[in-house]
Predict the 3D structure of the following.
Amino acid sequence: MRKNGNSHSGRVFSDRRWILPFFASLLVLITLLLSAVFGLFSSPNGGDPLPFDVIPFTRSEDSSGYFVESDLNRSFDTTGFSKMESPRLAYLISGTKGDSQRMMRVLQAVYHPRNQYILHLDLEAPPRERLDLTLSVKADQTFREVENVRVMAQSNLVTYKGPTMIACTLQAIAILLKESSEWDWFINLSASDYPLVTQDDLLHVFSNLSRNLNFIEHTQIAGWKLNQRGKSIIIDPGLYLSKKADIAWTTQRRSLPTSFKLFTGSAWVMLTRSFLEYCIWGWDNLPRTILMYYTNFISSPEGYFHTVVCNTEEFRNTAISHDLHYIAWDTPPKQHPLSLSMKDFDKMVKSGAPFARKFAKEDPVLDKIDKELLGRKNRFAPGAWCIGSSDGEADPCSLRGNDSVFRSGPGAERLQVLLQQLLSEDFRSKQCPSKR
Ligand SMILES: *[C@@H]1O[C@H](CO)[C@@H](O)[C@H](O)[C@H]1NC(C)=O
Ligand SMILES: *[C@@H]1O[C@H](CO)[C@@H](O)[C@H](O)[C@H]1NC(C)=O
Ligand SMILES: *[C@@H]1O[C@H](CO)[C@@H](O)[C@H](O)[C@H]1NC(C)=O
Ligand SMILES: *[C@@H]1O[C@H](CO)[C@@H](O)[C@H](O)[C@H]1NC(C)=O
């Protein structure tokens, strides 16, 4: 490629055919310059500012108000307390081949009529399984009546650690934003996650919280990791191939970004509606620029939202560095977390976290969680909205009551303790730290 280009320009020089056009354009240039200079001084109303006078673009107070962005800016709710209504959550539950039963179980364990749910089975799952999942959602009387559970018909090829993963999450968020104007937080779960508190507990505790707090575990990438992660370039074939293939590493390296700082953290997040509107609608270019940057970055789900939130003045103070999950790692940590089982039960409970991962399919500890933490006997983990009879085998949730009344239990107390710690001055002083 490069060789061709060189020999081509070499030939042009040796021909000397460039001489005539070169002098012609030089002459035109000089004429233009002279006329501009003389035109300026001989202008009849020379005192006027030039029409192309530029207002210096800075993000300071004096220039805001001139530009459309400042109006858009004003439209977001920075206090987070405009609504005193009880909160609503929007869940994405995603899975792959063979996960549909587990996804259904997670869905039932986190179900509450106030919330919104979207299920995504990736392209590795056979169409039959996606159909079965859709049919079991359709067959549920409560889901049919409340209409708050959706299965994504468009199924995406998702590469582990590739940008197709973040693209899929963004699509689900876009659907949730369009379909429901009411939710306050978005939560990301997989088929191997499970809740440790009831939705009543979670909604009760979050009722009292500012609606602009983003739970996103993050640290700035620094040291050797910065060179290793920030300079490598990957390509995710899931973006353009129809069959799944592994991420490809290129031999080229790129320089580190200087217009923003890189952050990384947990791929499990609980994000506010206002932050996600900022990311999805894109009236500010930063979320889009960073998304494009992350196309070639390894593990974009562990960095995209983190880098956007910490590089945006309006949001950096809203980022609480915790992913609200109990996750156990090997020492030293391996690539995947440990599978949780009976022996981890006490530690999970003690953590106060509302969710845990990861669990093997049908692990007996899930039954223990159902029985002891969620009170789940039938379909759902019951809440104050379940007002039917619970005699014998009857499902109290078959009759729905007021969904803004919550019955909080010990789970709410555990979560409250965790949140108190997360919202303490000491903890919040570590928000979006910038190491230099
Ligand atoms: C948006 O608002 C914040 C503070 O509320 C301000 O610091 C920032 O400069 C504003 N951005 C624009 C583009 O006006
Ligand atoms: C969302 O959830 C999935 C689990 O299926 C996870 O792998 C992914 O990285 C998560 N995070 C984001 C930001 O997409
Ligand atoms: C809500 O906040 C108030 C005041 O900060 C506090 O007294 C109350 O205990 C909180 N309630 C819950 C459920 O956390
Ligand atoms: C539901 O409960 C809330 C809070 O207790 C109350 O404000 C509301 O009026 C109730 N709604 C109905 C329809 O009873």
About this structure: Residues 19-42 form the longest helix (24 residues). The chain has one domain: 84-428.
